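Entry 14. Two folds queued back to back today. First construct below, sequence then C-alpha cells.
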Amino acid sequence: MTRRELRENIFKLLFILEFHNEDEYFDQEALYFEELGPVEEKDELYIKNKLSMILEKIPEIDEKLEENSQGWSLSRMGSAEKNILRLAYYELKFDEDIPDKVAINEAIELAKEFGQEDGASFVNGVLAKLV
C-alpha cells in the first residue's frame, strides 16, 4: 500500500471506531480488515500500530483540537473532519517520519474526499493554527 492508502485506512478505522465502544474495538478492526481484502502483513501491522498510538493520545489530541478550533467544539464537528484532524494532529506532533506539509496536505485531501462541502477549508484552518 502507498502511504496515502495507509493513511486513508487509518482514518476510516478511526471513523468507524467512533461509533463503537471499547469492547467492540477488536471485532470492528477484524471486520474492517476482513472486508478490506488481502493486505500485506507489514501494511496491516503499520495500520494497527499507528491506530493504537493515535487512540492512546486521543484525550491529548482532542484537547488541542478544542483549543484551536475557535467556535467549534468536537461535538459540533462532523465525524469525518474530527477524525481527519485527529490523524493529522498525531502526524504533526508525534510522527517524526512525516513532514508537516505532507500531513497537512494529506489531511486536506482526505477532507475533500470524505468531509462535508467546506470540510477541507475547515481542516486547513484548524491545522494552520496548530503548526
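Second construct, same run, same settings:
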Amino acid sequence: MVPQMKLISLTGGVGMGKTTVAKCCQARGLPVVDTDALAHEAVAPGQPALAEIARVFGPSVLDAEGQLRRSELARLVFADAIARGRLEAILHPRIRERWGEVVVRWRGAGEPAGVVVIPLLFETGAEREFDTIFCVACSAATQEARLAERGWSHEECRQRIQAQWPIERKLDLAHRVIWTEGPRSVTARQVERALDLDGIEWRRGDAD
C-alpha cells in the first residue's frame, strides 16, 4: 500500500519569513509551490484574470505593453476593503485551482510530502485541505523593518498588515510555529524539528 502524501501549508504574516522557511523545506528535499508565484502567473498578459482585472479596475492598472501595473493595483485595493474583495474574488479561485493541480502531480509522482505557501490560508478557508500547518512569525518590530526594506512607506506597511488576520490568530490555529528572528541556521533547525514532529521524511545531510 502506497503511503498517503502529507500536505503541509506554510503561512504567516507579510514579511515574516515565509520565503526563507520555504527554501529550508526545499533544501530538505520537499517540493514547494508558492501561491504568490502562481498569482503572478495568473495575471500575465493573455490570461483571463488580467482581462477581468482591467475590466473591474479600469485601464489604468495596465501599462502601455499590457502588463499589470502592480503598484497601481495595490494602491487601489489596499486602501479599499471592497476593492480588495473584488480582486480576491478574481484571483483566489484561480490560484486555488493552480496549486490543487500541483498537488495532484505530486501525488501522482509518489511524493511523500509537499509544501504549499499560502499567505492568506485561513482568510480563504483553505486550511481544511492540509494535514499540517506551519505558521512563520517574528516580532512586529522585525516585520516592520523587513517591510521597510522593500521600499514601502509606513502607510503601505500598515495597509498590508491590516489586510491579513492578526498573526496571533494564525499562531493559535497552526500546528507548528517557525520563529524567524534568529539566523537562518536556527530557522532551519526549527523546520527540521517541525518535520520530525509530523513524521515527515526529509533529506538529511548538509542542506544549507
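Quick look at the second one. Residues 81-108 form the longest helix (28 residues). The mean pLDDT is 95.
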